[in-house]
Amino acid sequence: MPVGRRSLVSAVHLTAPSIDPEEVAYFERLAHRWWDVEGPFWPLHKLNIFRVDYIREHLAAVLGRDAAAERPFEGVKILDIGCGGGILSESMARLGADVTGIEITDKNVKVAQMHAQWSGLDVAYRLASVDELVREGATFDAVLNMEVVEHVEHLPDFLADCRQLVRPGGVMFIASINRTLAAWLIAILGAEYLLRWLPRGTHHYRKLAPPAQVKRLLGGDFQLLDETGVRVNPLNRKFSFTRWQGVNYMLLLQRSAS
To answer: Which residues of the sequence carry a binding annotation for S-adenosyl-L-methionine (predicted)?
Structure first.
């Protein structure tokens, strides 16, 4: 199947300090399972429905769009960092956004490209790191940093690059796992070793970042618009909001327009 103009993989040598080679190898091994809703990424498929509703509501409010519209983000430039197989990128494209998805795993990019073509969606997938986009001077109306923070090395460098990719007045969504004993018990021991909802080794406690640290590293020109905890019911596997951010959390921050 021919590859569309916006689906070409850029030939880059990914050596950014925030990239962990072990994480790259791990997700390379799982790349072919991204769109198997009963496979190892089923929690991400469930979570995606939940987080898309959150992004849709809050981004529409920031932009003055009608969240109930079929394509509320027509013409909005969105960057999906760590897009994986394209689950979130495709959801945003269906809402009308001009989506760029970046990955540091070549197999994931190829999986995402192929699925977008099958789905008839125009998404620009690139094998690239955030620092490469910074060097290009790229900026976006919204940057989606979902389930990525907990996988990077050198978090300060990573977030310093991410913040530059948000245009003045634009927003960043961040979803991650807190660094608490409860998070270790539930998200790592429980989800990976006891319930086996995720493959073992998906998360490493030392890489988990508290929301306060993330907000501090983004700097004072980012204003917090919303924050929430996220929980999952182990019986029905449904996600819901909670005030408690002790395990999973989501943040919405807006960059100063000046």
So the answer is: 51, 82, 146
Burial of 24 (0-12, 13-18, 19+ CB in 10 A): middle
Asked if residue 82 belongs to a known ligand binding site, the reply is yes
Q: What is the pLDDT of residues 15-43, one digit of tens each?
A: 555 556 665 555 455 545 667 766 666 77
Span 137-180, pLDDT tens digits: 999 999 999 999 998 989 999 999 999 999 999 999 999 999 99
Q: What is the CA radius of gyration of the chain?
A: 17
The CATH number of whichever domain residue 29 belongs to comes to 3.40.50.150
Count up the domains in the chain and report the number: 1
* 45-49, 73-77, 112-116, 217-221: range with highest mean pLDDT: 73-77
Domain interval for residue 194: 5-255
Beta strands 248-255 and 222-232: pairing type?
A: antiparallel
Q: Which residues contact 8 (CB under 8 A, 6 or more apart)?
A: none
Average pLDDT over residues 199-213: 87
| Residue 206 annotated as lining a ligand binding site | no
Query: Using the 8-state DSSP alphabet, how is residue 65 labeled?
Result: -
Tell me which residue of 81, 84, 91, 105 sits closest to 41, measured CA to CA.
84
The residues, ordered by sequence, that sit 6+ positions from 44 with a Cβ below 8 Å of its Cβ are 84, 87, 147
**CA dist., res. 256 & res. 137, Å (int):** 18
